[in-house]
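Worked problem 6 (solution included).
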Amino acid sequence: MQTPRLLSPRLRVVGVVCAAAAIAACDNDSLISARDECTTLRQSQADIEGRRAEGMARVRLSVVSRLGVEAASPEQLSLNGAELYVGGSCYRVEGSSSVRLADLENDMGTLAADVSVEPGDVTHVLLRVSGPQGGTRTYSADRIALEEAVTLRPGSRTDIYLALNPVGTSSAVETAVVAAGMMPWSATTMVMDPARGGTMKLPGGFEMEMPAGSITEATVFGVDEIRTGDVSSTFVVMPESDLSQPVTLRLPIDRSRVPQGMTMADYGGRVKGAVAESSVQGNVATVTAATGLGHVRMGTSLPYVETTGGLRALMGPRPAEGASSEASLVDNECYRRLVNERATLYNLLAQNVGVRSFQCENVPPYVHIVIVNLSRAGLSAYPRIHFPNVQNADNTLQLREISTHITQVNEFAAINGFTWTGDKGFEWGGTGTAIGTVYMNYERVSPWYTGAEVMVGFGAWNPTYGTPTRFFDRPAGVSLDLSGYTEWMVPGTTSIVKNGACSRVPGGELDRWSTLGIGGGLLVMASSASYTTTTSYELCSVYEGLNVLGGAVRLDGGSASGISWGGVTLNPLTGSDYTAFGNERHIAYAVAALYP
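Solution. The predicted structure is:
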């Protein structure tokens, strides 16, 4: 699926206070006439969540103080909501709250308005302040014109920060826009002023300290926590920014998640996928982001394994260069690691419905690998395959994140399917039509496809014998007998393995990719780790190393690539993809493995 044009991860704005006597000089006529015709909004959080699916845009207005109020001061600020001017419309957001001014002398401030509105460009804002304020200050009630409009996109969230600033040495207070930015839906935010630095603290223990001068312009930063089941969550710091001075981050850790045979000393900081300086004290890890911000976590370079039975354990030592005696087209470190540990992985698969291997996450092709036991000897009941989706009456599929798709079923592993036509996948409520030969529950849900393609078909599940699988390679214009394997069928245009061997040549397109392959009663899912790319040729090493050579296909790639294990997405999006789509892109369907 081709990625659409992406938005800038940072939306920079400059606030200008418009005096009442000169408002015509900075407001356009349509806004002047609309001021007394504001639509009053009273929305609960449930309303805001529900309107996301309708294509509405969420905008949050927060306030910080730059008045220098002493910490012990009892002085209060009363807020009565705000007015937002979006295009030619005015929205009056109702609200009533009282806050100590001293509690706003930080970089997170307080929320003045949170509302869903029609998408468009925010050109003006007005903070509604009422008295008495418990002090001698007087507050401006003027509208603020944004020098650069802030665009609200359907289904997205945008945060705008205002600052209360002193007017000279008088008791007057003016309000100015500091910065605005598109944020993850569930993020906690702060505003960073280059001249003063910034600090953020989350209730769960995450902290971020940004010194003055570490960035060059005022910026809204958002932090979203992604729970991965590892020793630490992944904390997404957006926008991904270059740094001129190091930033310190503190992450809570869970020592009970350290695999058998390993210690916390085997873990270190990771920033944007790269090793970062770190230290651990108690249950807190301190990570230094030296040159840039992005995804932050604690990680390890040691290969280990997880099973659906709950085992987390270090695998054996890495083999020496050239240690494998098997013939291989792609003889890389990933291949050698998998060959070295294949017997152990197979033994684990004889006792579990699924295994996650970490062998190739830190070496090319840099992929997460999940292996499913569909019919290999050893189990009393085998897992099933399902393509979770929501199908509309017109045969289109509801586009959803992979984590949302799999909430329909009791899955333990899933990977994205093939591409689609229709919406691009970044808007809630989008739909698409599957491309290729896609069968779901014996029903074809895609138009007939005339181009060359490869397919993996799944037959009827049996708890004793598992799920039959078959690989199909169909040149253009050739008809195939698919009978017996159309309970579920996923297509692709590019094979990774066919005729019992790798089907690629060195080189090829470099991107994030997802693949799916079968052989020996096993189903293998492999998808690119965050911040990495690979080629189809390199992906052969996964299937050759595992000796799963019944056939493998390349699925959708780029921002659509996603893989899930144990209910969490392993490879959340990064950079501009994250800005456009969030943690995951909305896709047409997933290929999921269910507990029996």
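Discussion: Residues 1-35, 318-325 have pLDDT under 50 and may be disordered.
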